[in-house]
Amino acid sequence: MTTPWVTYNAAPLGFAVGSGGLALASTEWRRESDLIHLRNLWVFGTSGATFPTTPRFSLPVGSTWTGAGTITYRITGWGSLVSGSSGQVYPAYPVMTSSGNIQILYGSPVVGISPTTPWVWAPGDSMFVDVTYRPS
Hints:
This protein is an all-beta fold. It contains 1 helix and 10 strands.
């Protein structure tokens, strides 16, 4: 059974996209058999954007993950980080945290994103992730 895509309020944790003409948060999910599939896009806006810690986001209500089991077999995903001003693009890697939200990493070797890594984040920059996981 596959359900239609439904938007949800994916609470950004460790960052805020801000406001203004460019600010956008497109977060949606659906059930695909016994899996949950998420697609989340954030574009940093022109005012009020902050990025104090490693970005994470919440899961849809009713699709929680408790951290039990082996993460490798529980989540798959990919994404991209795009600098609107320089055109730099990096692959992003979503990982499930033990607190039941998704953290966004990048690079090789994989490291955390910060306010200045992989660049100094600015209005128009974006993060996109596509995630599939098995809820608890």
